[in-house]
């Protein structure tokens, strides 16, 4: 009866925990302090129901990709579209997911081509089956060749260059570009673009993006190793916020600017701990990709004439315009 | 594996009476050899070698604050490597350890924020959840008799999905909301994520906890009945049961200990970064296991120590940060880490062979 006894003890502990929990609420912060705000919503189209598959190379649980999905969902709700979202970071698996969508005979496919070669065959198959394919987020150099209808995204290299030029204006001399996933094409392209646009020296540092304590101490170590670094450039919002702590740990005077946003980051730009952020507007990418398939189906429209991409960034968020963005970031849509 | 115990006092001197004829069975082996046969000696040598190496190769390492940084990185691995090592001595694995850390942090953070509770309430419930996950792992293992690799691979995948799905369901986002302005946060931060000064150097509190837990684990392993049970169930479960060791209790409690470690590191992450991203933690479980193995614990169970994984984690942290301090080409980082790990295990193997040869 030993086990029964222990189970009873456990139940008692859980119960007392629940009681304890109800008895001690926080007087500040938390859900109660949140202001109500409805998500962007509009009417619904009366066009026939259609199905769109969105297939990305996102790793699950990433804030950035969540925004893309929210944008796609908003467009789907408005256009009377059934959205089938799937993702896999490995290129082979992603191609299988596209094949899966073709087998389901969807009306349109929106996909990211982070590894263009792996997507070539399935895109050709989709076209053969008469399914329009639009690209977004990744593959700005390859979408035409792959035979996609149109493309929505940011040219990472151009964004990196613009970032570098902004740093020139701000007078930075030595930048550290922090990459959270070694060998990821888009991230490497940002740092390469930065190197091109920035007139000072650029170093690259790889960190393990799935382990924040390690990110923190690795950036600290680098700042210690080279005290001439006066500018930290991060490629994701959580990494930027962690770099703030690294800076104080290392006692370094460097400044921080970053690619991509989230709501804590917008706050940090507002209070000046982070200089600026470059937003590629993921919500817009997801929204436009889905909406464009609706337009194509119902009115034959497509953007860019099959030659030019539609650029969604870079949009610079600084102290001056952070307030307008903050409202949307707090809702989790920007 | 046979039961290998190392609890005898190390100060006894070898018999002084010359080359008197002995039959070799009762003879005390020389002190040096007996020391070398301890599981943590190989890794101690390895860690010292790595430390000296970077001391020479990377000038910034000589600075006290750099050492504090290396120790911080090591401690976040090391706190988890301890229960993982005990579990491994007890003959089992836990592949869910990495995501369990994030799961615990998510639980505390979301509960606190969504119900607008005092932070401590969230911390407390997260502890229960973590212990519960550990209990589930152990209970499944004992009940089904499946290898722990399979059982915990299952919980690893379940937790990974639950972390993401529940966070999305509750917050509408994939990261939790900032709880740094809530009641009890500062207090909890003092315990889990504060910094103090030692001779002008800022040291993170996790380093202290790491060493305290290591001392505790060593005492338990070498001086208590429970420690004997751990060695026994990892050595041979059936014979352990035959001599009256409560195998079920020992295994389940070891998994719950890993749950406790996951909770502690999870709380550290929550209180030092204010928010948690639900996709983190994947892959960390292998680093904890690696630290334990480098630290001289056998993958097959029944052999190991608690001090070994401390040096194992230190070696990991030292290499990880040392490469950055040395300013080497970062492209090679992972390859270099791999070489270091292989090297360390080879030293281990060589030392234990040399020590047990007669």
UniProtKB/TrEMBL annotation, chain A:
<dbReference type="GO" id="GO:0030246">
    <property type="term" value="F:carbohydrate binding"/>
</dbReference>
<comment type="similarity">
    <text>Belongs to the bacterial solute-binding protein 2 family.</text>
</comment>
<feature type="signal peptide">
    <location>
        <begin position="1"/>
        <end position="21"/>
    </location>
</feature>
<dbReference type="InterPro" id="IPR028082">
    <property type="entry name" value="Peripla_BP_I"/>
</dbReference>
<dbReference type="GO" id="GO:0030288">
    <property type="term" value="C:outer membrane-bounded periplasmic space"/>
</dbReference>
<dbReference type="InterPro" id="IPR050555">
    <property type="entry name" value="Bact_Solute-Bind_Prot2"/>
</dbReference>
<dbReference type="Pfam" id="PF13407">
    <property type="entry name" value="Peripla_BP_4"/>
</dbReference>
<protein>
    <submittedName>
        <fullName>Sugar ABC transporter substrate-binding protein</fullName>
    </submittedName>
</protein>
<dbReference type="InterPro" id="IPR025997">
    <property type="entry name" value="SBP_2_dom"/>
</dbReference>
<feature type="domain" description="Periplasmic binding protein">
    <location>
        <begin position="53"/>
        <end position="296"/>
    </location>
</feature>
<keyword id="KW-0732">Signal</keyword>
From TrEMBL, chain B:
<keyword id="KW-0762">Sugar transport</keyword>
<feature type="transmembrane region" description="Helical">
    <location>
        <begin position="332"/>
        <end position="351"/>
    </location>
</feature>
<comment type="function">
    <text>Part of the binding-protein-dependent transport system for D-xylose. Probably responsible for the translocation of the substrate across the membrane.</text>
</comment>
<feature type="transmembrane region" description="Helical">
    <location>
        <begin position="41"/>
        <end position="58"/>
    </location>
</feature>
<keyword id="KW-0812">Transmembrane</keyword>
<dbReference type="Pfam" id="PF02653">
    <property type="entry name" value="BPD_transp_2"/>
</dbReference>
<feature type="transmembrane region" description="Helical">
    <location>
        <begin position="119"/>
        <end position="142"/>
    </location>
</feature>
<feature type="transmembrane region" description="Helical">
    <location>
        <begin position="70"/>
        <end position="88"/>
    </location>
</feature>
<feature type="region of interest" description="Disordered">
    <location>
        <begin position="1"/>
        <end position="24"/>
    </location>
</feature>
<dbReference type="InterPro" id="IPR001851">
    <property type="entry name" value="ABC_transp_permease"/>
</dbReference>
<feature type="transmembrane region" description="Helical">
    <location>
        <begin position="149"/>
        <end position="166"/>
    </location>
</feature>
<keyword id="KW-1003">Cell membrane</keyword>
<protein>
    <recommendedName>
        <fullName>Xylose transport system permease protein XylH</fullName>
    </recommendedName>
</protein>
<feature type="transmembrane region" description="Helical">
    <location>
        <begin position="286"/>
        <end position="303"/>
    </location>
</feature>
<feature type="transmembrane region" description="Helical">
    <location>
        <begin position="243"/>
        <end position="266"/>
    </location>
</feature>
<feature type="transmembrane region" description="Helical">
    <location>
        <begin position="203"/>
        <end position="222"/>
    </location>
</feature>
<keyword id="KW-1133">Transmembrane helix</keyword>
<dbReference type="GO" id="GO:0005886">
    <property type="term" value="C:plasma membrane"/>
</dbReference>
<keyword id="KW-0472">Membrane</keyword>
<keyword id="KW-0997">Cell inner membrane</keyword>
<dbReference type="GO" id="GO:0022857">
    <property type="term" value="F:transmembrane transporter activity"/>
</dbReference>
<keyword id="KW-0813">Transport</keyword>
């Amino acid at each position: 009866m030993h086990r029964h006894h222990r189970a009873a003890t456990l139940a008692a502990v859980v119960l007392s925990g629940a009681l304890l929990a109800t008895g001690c609420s926080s007087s500040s912060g938390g859900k109660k302090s949140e202001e109500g705000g409805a998500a962007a919503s509009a009417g619904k189209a009366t066009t026939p129901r259609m199905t769109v598959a969105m297939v990305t190379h996102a790793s699950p649980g990433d804030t950035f990709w969540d925004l893309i999905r929210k944008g796609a969902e908003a467009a789907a709700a408005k256009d009377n579209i059934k959205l089938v979202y799937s993702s896999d970071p490995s290129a082979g698996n992603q191609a299988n997911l596209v094949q899966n969508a073709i087998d389901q005979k969807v009306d349109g496919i929106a996909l990211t081509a982070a590894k263009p070669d792996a997507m070539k065959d399935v895109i050709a198959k989709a076209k053969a089956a008469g399914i329009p394919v639009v690209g977004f987020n990744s593959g700005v150099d390859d979408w035409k060749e792959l035979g996609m209808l149109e493309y929505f995204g940011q040219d990472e290299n151009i964004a990196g260059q613009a970032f570098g030029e902004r740093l020139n204006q701000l007078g930075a001399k030595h930048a550290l570009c922090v990459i959270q996933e070694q060998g990821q094409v888009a991230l490497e392209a940002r740092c390469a673009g930065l190197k091109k646009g920035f007139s000072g020296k650029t170093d690259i540092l790889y960190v393990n993006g799935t382990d924040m304590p390690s990110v923190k101490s690795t950036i600290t170590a680098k700042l210690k190793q080279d005290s001439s670094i006066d500018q930290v450039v991060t490629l994701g919002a959580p990494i930027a916020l962690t770099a703030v702590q690294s800076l104080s740990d290392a006692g370094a005077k460097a400044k921080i600017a970053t690619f991509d946003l989230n709501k804590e980051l917008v706050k940090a730009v507002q209070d000046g701990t982070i200089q600026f952020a470059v937003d590629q507007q993921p919500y817009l990418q997801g929204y436009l990709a889905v909406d464009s398939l609706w337009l194509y189906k119902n009115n034959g429209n497509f953007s860019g004439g099959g030659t030019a991409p539609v650029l969604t960034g870079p949009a610079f968020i600084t102290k001056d315009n952070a307030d307008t963005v903050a409202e949307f970031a707090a809702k989790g849509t920007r | 594996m046979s039961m290998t115990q190392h609890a005898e006092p190390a100060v006894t001197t070898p018999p002084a009476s010359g080359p008197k004829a002995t039959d070799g069975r009762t003879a005390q082996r020389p002190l040096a050899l007996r020391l070398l046969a301890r599981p943590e000696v190989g890794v101690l040598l390895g860690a010292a070698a790595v430390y000296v190496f970077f001391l020479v190769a990377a000038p910034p390492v000589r600075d006290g604050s750099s050492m504090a940084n290396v120790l911080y990185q090591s401690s976040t691995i090391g706190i988890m490597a301890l229960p993982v090592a005990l579990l491994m001595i007890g003959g089992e694995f836990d592949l869910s350890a990495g995501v369990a850390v994030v799961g615990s942090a998510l639980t505390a953070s979301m509960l606190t924020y969504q119900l607008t509770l005092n932070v401590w309430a969230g911390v407390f419930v997260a502890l229960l959840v973590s212990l519960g996950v550990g209990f589930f792992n152990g209970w499944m293992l004992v009940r089904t008799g499946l290898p722990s690799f399979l059982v915990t691979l299952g919980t690893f995948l379940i937790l990974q999905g639950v972390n993401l799905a529940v966070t999305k369901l509750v917050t509408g986002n994939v990261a939790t909301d900032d709880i740094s302005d809530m009641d009890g946060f500062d207090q909890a931060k003092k315990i889990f994520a504060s910094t103090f000064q030692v001779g002008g150097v800022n040291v993170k509190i996790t380093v202290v906890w790491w060493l305290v837990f290591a001392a505790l684990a060593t005492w338990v392993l070498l001086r208590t009945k429970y420690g004997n049970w751990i060695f026994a169930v990892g050595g041979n479960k059936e014979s352990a049961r035959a001599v009256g060791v409560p195998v079920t209790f020992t295994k389940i409690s070891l998994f719950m200990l890993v749950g406790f470690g996951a909770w502690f590191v999870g709380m550290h992450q929550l209180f030092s970064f204010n928010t948690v991203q639900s996709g983190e933690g994947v892959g960390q479980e292998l680093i904890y296991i690696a630290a334990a193995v480098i630290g001289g614990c056998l993958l097959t169970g029944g052999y190991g120590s608690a001090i070994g994984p401390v040096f194992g984690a230190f070696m990991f942290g030292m290499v990880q940060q040392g490469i950055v301090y040395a300013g080497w080409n970062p492209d090679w980082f992972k390859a270099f880490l791999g070489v270091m790990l292989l090297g360390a295990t080879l030293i281990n193997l060589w030392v234990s062979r040399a020590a047990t040869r007669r």
